[in-house]
Amino acid sequence: MAVKVKRLLRIMEELAPSRLTSEWDNTGLQAGHPENNIDRIMLTLDINGAVAEEAVQRHAQAIISHHPLIFKPLSTLRSDNPVGAALSVLISHDIALISAHTNLDASVGGVNDALAELLGLLELRVLQRTEAEALFKLVVFVPVDAVNAVREAVSDAGAGHIGQYSHCTFMARGTGTFKPLEEAQPYLGEIGRLEEVDEYRLETVVPASSLDRVIAAMRKAHPYEEVAYDVFRLQQTGIESGLGRYGRLPQEKRLDELAGEIRSLLGVEYLRIVGDAERIIKKVAVCGGSGGRLIERAVDRQADLLLTGDIKYHEAQQAEALGLALIDAGHAATERPVVFRLRDSLQQRLSDEVEILISSVVTDPIRLF
Questions:
Q1: DSSP letter assigned to residue 166
Q2: Residues near 8 by Cβ (< 8 Å), separated by ≥ 6?
Q3: What's the predicted TM-score (pTM) here?
């Protein structure tokens, strides 16, 4: 079986919404045609000529990368420079390229959640919020004999989620009135006659990202020709997205003990550490990639440790002065767990329709000597 590139784009929009992309970033479809069919996808942190050639050898018709190949508009497309060479391979073999960068960093289930879950952190929170999803209240009036079908339809489409509970609704019974006019085709009643119907007022909460889908599901399940419903914007907000995560270790550990576990979990040869080896770590903040700018935020959240990459000298000094332990495991190592998380998420949504591969090319240029 195969799926079209545009379906893969829709799935990626669910996993890493484009609205979370930073202004300076470039994400989405960077090469290829939305109507092309694909039955094999390759995932990678970085996209370069070697990864493009690997996709050709492994017969992948699409690549999903975390770091974009094209950051800025190209003035030329020449195969004698790295970006042009990689693009030439992709174009000549009709391989689609999709990138999810800062949107995958900030999204729920993205880079930072993958890293936090690898450490087993509990009670996860967003370290620096960039967005809280808007919530709406959907109110619809449904005849008694159809209320169960409508309730299930809107819940299955994404309504009614509150914390760790789904299918959350409220129903109040009452009497609805209507008079079918000449051109109507009523589910109940007669043309020109005022009717009274036993109905439920069904209410539920809907996140903004699911609103259109929920309304469509409600209309499809509702028996009336003209559905009476209201949508209200709520003051409270839903799921938070943003940079980094912080949470509690299942069991407190010494800094040197935790560092050894992190080195093993991330498969790295070395770590750069700031802090006393004997220090007890209870609360950990993480930021995949480069998280030095979140040092003060981690301190504000009373974290004992920040795990990230690309720590600069003066950032290390700042953390030490503020009493925050640091573990710098490198940019690539702290982002790589998302590749496996993304594979699982795609496989769950695509079932057996496509094969999902992970690139074997080592794109991290930093080596120990």
A1: -
A2: 38, 41, 62, 64, 96, 98
A3: 0.82
3-state secondary structure of 125: strand
Around Cβ 15, how many Cβ atoms within 10 Å?
19
Sign of CA dihedral 65, 67, 72, 77: negative
Which pair of structure tokens corresponds to residue 41? 């996808």
Alpha carbon distance 222, 217 (integer Å): 9
- As a whole number of angstroms, the distance between CA 169 and CA 202 comes to 7
What is the Cα gyration radius of the chain?
Answer: 25
> In the structure encoding, which two tokens stand for residue 79, read together?
């195969």
The burial class, CB within 10 Å (0-12 / 13-18 / 19+), for 294 is buried
pLDDT tens-digit map of 95-133: 999 999 999 999 999 999 999 999 999 999 999 998 888
Pick from 138, 147, 192, 207: nearest CA to 173: 147
Angle at CA 181, nearest 5°, toward 175 and 184? 90
Q: pLDDT digit string (tens) for 183-222?
A: 888 878 788 889 889 999 999 999 998 999 999 999 999 9
- Rounded to whole angstroms, the Cα distance separating 205 from 212 reads 13
The H-assigned helical ranges of 28-110 are 49-57, 82-92, 102-106
Q: Return the number of other C-beta atoms located less than 10 Å from residue 278's C-beta.
A: 9
Burial label for 176, CB within 10 Å (0-12, 13-18, 19+), is middle
Task: Give exposure, 246-263, as e/b (b: 16+ Cβ within 10 Å).
Answer: bbbbeeebebeebbeebb
Structure tokens at 277: 């080896």
